[in-house]
Design a protein that fits this description.
heterodimer; A: 273 residues; alpha/beta; Rossmann fold; two-stranded antiparallel sheet; 10 helices; 12% strand; B: 322 residues; five-stranded mixed sheet; 13 helices; 14 strands
Amino acid sequence: MNHVHDERELAGIAKRLRRDVIEMITAAKSGHPGGSLSATEIMVTLYWSVMRHDPKNPQWKDRDRIILSKGHACPILYAAMAETGYTPKDQLNTLRQMGSIYQGHPDVRFIPALEASTGSLGQGLSLGIGMALAAQLNQSPSRTYVILGDGEVQEGQIWEAAMFAGNRGMDNLVCIIDYNRIQLDGFTKDIQDLEPLGAKWQAFNWHVISVDGHSIPALQQAFAEAASTRNKPTLLIANTVKGKGVSFMENNPKYHGSAPSAEEAVAALKELA
Amino acid sequence: MATRTRFEVKNGVATREAFGQALVELGRVNPDVVVCDADLSKSTFTAGFAKEFPDRFFQCGIAEANMVAIGSGLASGGKIPFVSSFSCFVMNKGFEQLRVTAAFPNVNLKVVGTHSGISIGEDGPSQMSIEDLSLACSLAGFTVLSPADEFSMRKLIRAAAAHQGPVFIRAGRIKAPIIYSAAEEFEIGKAKVLAQGSDVTLMATGLLVAESLLACDLLEAEGISTRVIDFATIKPLDREVIAAAASETGAIVVSEEHLADGGLGVRIAQVVAETAPCVMEFVGVRNTYAESGTPDGLLDKYGLRAVNIAGAARRAVSRKKK
């Protein structure tokens, strides 16, 4: 797919995807808006200006892979896949309904263009390592991008995977932590603090970049730095705001996992107009 | 008059060793075969593959959950990964990963659990896998294999590699009696009738196939016509052979080196209930964990011998007459 370079155009796409997220979750009457809105710029940057992929040929062998390990944020993934042409846009509002391809968590049985079925936290980085190893064996230029939630980093398997990729110096692997600082039960620092987060990954032999996760130019630069980093996997700590773009959802743990009411949705869409 | 095939029960190599040999042979003909292990490659016999194909072997360290999901990722990337560890570790520590990254998306992952059952011996119950078949069978879409000897293991490893979809293969630590000839062919989903008979059927898997053949000799000497069937495939079960045995012999004993609750026995009982209900008896580990000991001593103490199987068969035959 041709990349979009115009910054204003990318910002416009991000706003459109945020609207899709609000509409989908409102129609479904359940879902996870906060972590979808925090990951919006990450998703836009990857799909429109970083990844080598072809919506017309989703099984292209040398495509870059993207795994949304924090599967509950699938509304933003579905919005991006629909906008780029992988899946039908007019069915987005069937999210979470029986028979919908837009399942409550990503499910490859319904969308074969997905790289992985996710939803049980902690597993995406290991899957990404497997895909990146296969690319190395195939001498493919394919790069693998794995998006984790910050709460997800509390899972032990993440650290097994971090150790493996760091020790192997897997420079075709990029992990992005959507560091929105909120998880279901409250603020991450109160539940089980991750800090010092960057130092921990550096100690596991990762190249660590801390970046404003809502600045598309900053994300583009970080992904370019990752691509030119040799013999180390890269971790992007994307500092984000949960519920970004909708004032009453921002930094509000309530919107980790609850849908807006009809009135709230109207207010949210007005802010995203 | 029932026809009977004789099998010589003599010591062969352990099924884990046969797995290791088959893996190397497979590696030579199929460049997509890759292997992951979790610091037990000398025990699981994946070390041979690691030596010959170092670029296609991934040492994951003692991190089974990570290993299983890496295997699933390799499968998604077009490889045919075999991930291996002791059965108790890969199944128990990797179960959730097997469920979410392999079973649910129907990924082409092959999982080999060695050191199954209580016959691992001295290491004791923390290392013994007596619930692996139950766990593996509870993964929707998984094929579950449990070969009894080196020749069936070799053939079924090839069949597993050729099969599209997730497969669990159970292997043992100790030398396994040779049941088959090297030329015997095996098909996933097909049980092997090793002895024909009309009074009772002994169904078994793994090491207890040989014990069932020995039990068959004991029973035949008493005039009890005994059928013996090897279930090298636990899932999907060979329903036809079960239904025929149930209706033709009217009495079935299922034996396994596994908890009697949840293994081959209850799976066969389900098929019997659905086809031709008959008297059944079960030989397995009964609601307990074993202990350290010699493999032979443990098989004796926990009642997994020919004499126990023959006893269960006599009970079944007498219940049938009532």
